[in-house]
Amino acid sequence: MFILLAQLEKFWRYFDQNTKRFFYLVLFFTIIGSIFELIGIGLLVPYASLLSGVNNHSFEDIYPFFSGYSIHPEVAIGISIFIFFLFRSIVLFSSTQLLVSFYNKQAKVVMMDVVKFVIKNNSINPNNLNYEDIRKASVIESREFASIFDALISLINEFLLMAFLIIALFYLYPNEILTISFLVLPIFILTKYLSRYSKLFGEQRESATSQYFDQLDSIIKNIRLTRLSKSFSKLILDKLDISASNLAKANISLGMVNNVPRYLLDFIVYGGITLALVYIYLYDDKNRIEFIITFVIVSLRIFPSITRIISGLNNLIFHMAAIPSIEKYDPKKEDIGTANKIHSEFLSRIDFMNLQIKNSSLEINLDKISLEFGSSYLIKGESGSGKSTFVDFIMGFILASKGNISINDQSYNFADFQNSIKKYISYVPQDTFLFNDSVQNNVLAGSEMNQERYDICSKIARIDGPSSGLKSEYVINNYGTNLSIGQRQRISIARALYANLPILILDEPSSALDYKLEREIISDLLVHRKHQNMLTIVISHSKLIDKLFDFSMIIERKNNKSKIILVDESE
Fold first, then answer.
1. What CA–CA distances, in Å, run from 293 to 45, 290, 317, 568?
2. CA distances from 80 to 70, 77, 180, 298, 383 (A)
């Protein structure tokens, strides 16, 4: 119980005050719906007793406000109860829809929080991101996490309703209710025993879901090999089938845990009623008939409440397995960014001195390098020498282990540099991401249209030219699969140029372009950036564009250490 409360406290801490207030509002309307149910049962029980003839009172005694009408009170009361239950159904439907809406909105909030955390958290090295875990947390675990709200509200509502009904029955028939309580007690003992399996099945579901996403990701990443090799295809499909089977087993097991108490309770209730009727017949005990009628009507609501409480408790424990997966992506848990610390809007130079950058397999060292705005730099080196690692440091994705940084001759610590430099950088990655939209909207990427700037960028990237093969109005489908790699690279270059930021970093931006087009685009890009006094950094293996740059940064690796050497190409 204490572990359950501790997990609930973690869950509750995740949400802001507005969400908690709305939760209380949903709970309030749910309880109002339950009160209407109680009133309905309170109206129906004496009505059934009076009609059956086992109650010695008259309709006027029980329902005095119906006396004096020209129609029979039995009919008036029956129509009134019918209308009340219609109104009750509307209230219950409204409260249920409010709960469904609240649950789905919270699932959406958690889904977005996971993605926002990954985007904004400066402490996460992009190279260390677990894409399968992020995808699972955002798509699957977010809904499981939000389901805790549903289970909580159902538990509280059903518990209150059941408590009211049991208290009323105990007040009217204390001896009979005590007898029935002893029969129902084993159900709760069994539920306590089964609840530990709900936690186990929840953990199994979480593990199976992770494995399933891992295998699915392997298929997508190796789709060519999967299609060509029957043995590889069989191997990876067998692994996926095991994960899917384990996921199904966990859900099936939870269904079994929920259903065992339910059907055992059904047997006790309806079997008990049957035996009570046999007892009344054998011993001609008419005094028990009113209790049986009352108990049957109340049982139609109270025992579903008991089964829902049992099911809700198991579901609550089951869904809580999602808390650790979501908790690590809580945007309130980590410092996901500080205010901009770079005080000058006009950047002229960035100096790195005695810098050491480490990752799991490499150490990069440099004595002193100055990056002058208005200049262009080509980063060269063998594969694995640390080119991308150094660029990740410049973009603020990883921290240096030692050294000094200054911007415009003002010193900054690594954390301030990391949190501040991003707003000044535009980046062209090796793998281009495109939206299912027009070429023009992909270049704008959500920015407002500036026709003059757009025309310059599209001209440099060879978009809309007479022989470009790429028009601004052209609509991209399937995230760019209807374009060649070279066309995608040109759109990505135009997008980065259009951002018009002081620092532009390009990682193999023209690898799929032919020599002539590559040289033309890179040359025009560098000239444009120089005229704007902006810094341009390019990673490239192409030896055909070396002489276009002002400087080359050559990264030489020996064993697990690399050193950066700056070469002035103008000399």
1. 8, 5, 36, 98
2. 15, 5, 32, 20, 83
Helix (H/G/I), strand (E/B), else coil: 109: helix
When pLDDT is cut at 50, 70 and 90, the band that residue 564 belongs to is: confident
**Interstrand relation of 349-358 and 402-407 (parallel, antiparallel or unpaired):** antiparallel
**Coil, strand, or helix at residue 560?**
coil
* Per-residue 3-state assignment (H helix, E strand, C coil) for 163-183: HHHHHHHHHHCHHHHHHHHHH
Neighbours of 535 (CB within 10 A): 25
**Distance in angstroms (rounded) separating the CA atoms of residues 103 and 100:** 5
List, in order, residues 6 or more apart from 232 with CB less than 8 Å away: 222, 225, 226
Q: Which of 406, 418, 401 is nearest to 368 (CA)?
A: 406
The pLDDT, as a whole number, for residue 527 is 95
> What global pTM score does this model have?
0.66
pLDDT band at 531 (very low <50, low <70, confident <90, very high): very high
Average of per-residue pLDDT values in the chain: 77
Rounded distance, CA 143 to CA 151, Å?
12
The type of residue at 182 is: F
Six-digit token string for 166: 């049991």
CA atoms within 13 A on the CB side of 538: 30
- Domain ranges in the chain are 16-327, 349-568
For domain 16-327, give the fold.
Answer: ABC transporter transmembrane region fold (1.20.1560)
User: How do strand 363-372 and strand 561-568 relate by DSSP bridges?
Assistant: parallel
**Does 16-327 match 349-568 in CATH topology?**
no
What HEC string does 408-450 produce?
A: CCEEECHHHHHHHHHHHEEEECCCCCCCCCEHHHHHHCCCCCC
The answer to whether 504 touches 529, Cβ cutoff 8 Å, is yes
Q: Which of 79-88, 337-346, 455-464, 506-515 has the lowest mean pLDDT?
A: 337-346
Instruction: Answer yes or no: are the C-beta atoms of 340 and 537 closer than 8 Å.
Output: no
CA-CA distance, 450 to 444, in Å (whole number)?
9
Q: How far is CA 312 from CA 131, 194, 304, 437, in A?
A: 32, 13, 12, 45
HSE (side-chain half, CA atoms, 13 Å) at 551:
20
How far out from the chain centre does Cα 153 lie?
A: 21
Instruction: State the CATH class of domain 349-568.
Output: alpha beta
